[in-house]
Specification:
This protein is mainly alpha-helical. It has a single domain (3-106), classed as Globins (Globin-like, Orthogonal Bundle). It contains five helices and no strands. The radius of gyration is 14 Å and the shape is globular. It starts with a helix and ends with a helix.
Amino acid sequence: MGAEQITVIHESFGNVAPISEEAAARFNGRLFEIAPELKPLFRRFMTEQGGKLMATLAAVANGFNNLESMLPSASAFAKRCVDYGVKAADYGTVGAVLLWALERGADR
């Protein structure tokens, strides 16, 4: 990943960070709209799970210059997702919805 791409990621996430709670809620709403079968994976504490999602995204967005700092947070998040029951087949949908939610937050 080049320096220009990293800068775009930092700037884009910087626009989303102040509205992280709203962005997480938007993500969940859209995900359950297009993939209602995934809703049982989010059993409880939606606000807490949304906060963890946004904290992980912040660590990733800010960690591209230093992968060693990013990997523990991203790895722990991935392990939690597996524990919740997320399957490999779900990642395409989740990724598309995540980009959708972040684009709307960055457009603010």
